Amino acid sequence: MADRVIAYIDGFNLYYGLKEMGWQRYYWLNLAELTRLLLPADQQLVVVKYFTALVSSTRADPDKNRRQTTFLEALLTLPNLRIFYGHYLQKQVQCFRCGAIWHTHEEKKTDVNLAAELLNDAYSDAFDVALLVSADSDLADVVKDIPRRFAEKRVVVAFPPGRQSLALSNVASHSFMIGRANLRKSRFPDSVRKADGFILQRPASWR
User: Fold this and answer.
1) CA–CA distances in Å: residue 68 to residues 37, 72, 73, 149, 165
2) 120 contact partners, CB below 8 Å, separation of at least 6
3) CA atoms within a 13 Å half-sphere pointing along the CA-CB vector of 136
4) Confidence label for 75 from pLDDT (cuts 50, 70 and 90)
């Protein structure tokens, strides 16, 4: 019998990994297809769980929220994918040299939501293998804890492009870097049709 796999994707960790590599063309990802490509033949994908937070548009980037919303709606056309939302908090930052003050936003709760869902699924015996797509070292404790509590379960870590965590590598059952070839094979088509017939278009800046 094939091992049951649940994928847990840290949305912003994946996004910023792609951004730092300059790979905007891979933002438009079919995450269920990407996950399937990362699995060996003796494993079966049960569900993909995607963790993110809604972003706000800015003067510098007025289309930021629209692009993200379009992508999330494309993900929701996939039958075996669920989205879990954290939130952004406004944070005031001050320059120590000149005293200038500006506001930025800090994403909260993604790692907490992901860790809680991972533990809950382990206790519910929902998977044999957990595939974690992240390089967030804050998740090392839960990755270490699961095989200690459940000897038959494994946690495999797939690092986003350009990102790695020694803390996660040291406690995971196995770890590897997501390669460009699998990203290239996993992109949605330029147009994605929703159940109501509405056509979602890939954002122009992601081409």
Assistant:
1) 24, 6, 9, 37, 26
2) none
3) 23
4) very high
pTM across the whole model = 0.90
Number of neighbours of residue 73 by Cβ within 10 angstroms: 13
> What is the b/e burial string over 40-49, where b = at least 16 CB atoms within 10 angstroms of the residue's CB?
eeebebbbbb
Token pair in block for residue 114: 């992901």
Residue 52 has pLDDT above 70, yes or no: yes
What are the residues facing 10 on neighbouring strands?
Answer: 51
Contact indicator for 55, 65 with CB cutoff of 8 Å? yes
| Three-state DSSP string of 128-180 | CEEEEECCCHHHHHHHHHHHHHCCCCEEEEEECCCCCCHHHHHHCCEEEECCH
Is 3-54+82-186 a domain of CATH 3.40.50.1010? yes
